[in-house]
Amino acid sequence: MSDAVLSLAGITKSYNTGLPGQVDVLRGVDLDVQRGEVVALVAPSGAGKSTLLHIAGLLDTPDAGSVTLHGQNLTGQSDRRRTLARRAEVGFIYQFHHLLPEFSALENIALPQLAAGTTRTDADARALALLEKVGVGHRASHRPAELSGGEQQRVAFCRALANGPALLLADEPTGNLDPATSDQVFDALMALVRDTGLSALIATHNLDLAKRMDRTVRLDTGHLAKVP
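User: That's the sequence. What structure does it adopt?
Assistant: Structure tokens below.
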């Protein structure tokens, strides 16, 4: 029996551009991400990596193929069922942190927990514990504007993991940082991922970062291939 947390099978996706014909972004993508595995996704600009991540995270639907999370095929399910599965199973990180500017670092991490029904005391305690794991516990009361770019992204990492997802999806999570900060922040992310034991699919242009993950797959011309 497969131990895959995420399983994509035969995923296709096309877009109409208003011009004659259509753009085929994904042409039969198959990918399994096993429990506790960290997979790097590399692709040229415009190759469809963001589309693939959105489909994997149930934010978008494929034209064909199936998306399975923890053994549950969610293809064709209702929007409500997909939303509930996404909230329970998936954490997202983007290139830009998208933190709420009027709230502190701790509050940004507590909010998704409160929305899920966690008590304020427990939400604050988990938020602080996550911040301490990525080395910014001392900045818990600071608002995003008072944090450096690297600190803001660490807070975003913690927010993505606040509700204990099984799968982390990240789209160029250090792409907006300078090389030195990128390395430090990526180390913090990997430590957090390994410590929590979750699975991750991380899109990056940085091949050095990709080599630090368990394996690398490349998306090009709509197809996925393993990188030796």
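DSSP finds seven helices and ten strands in the chain.
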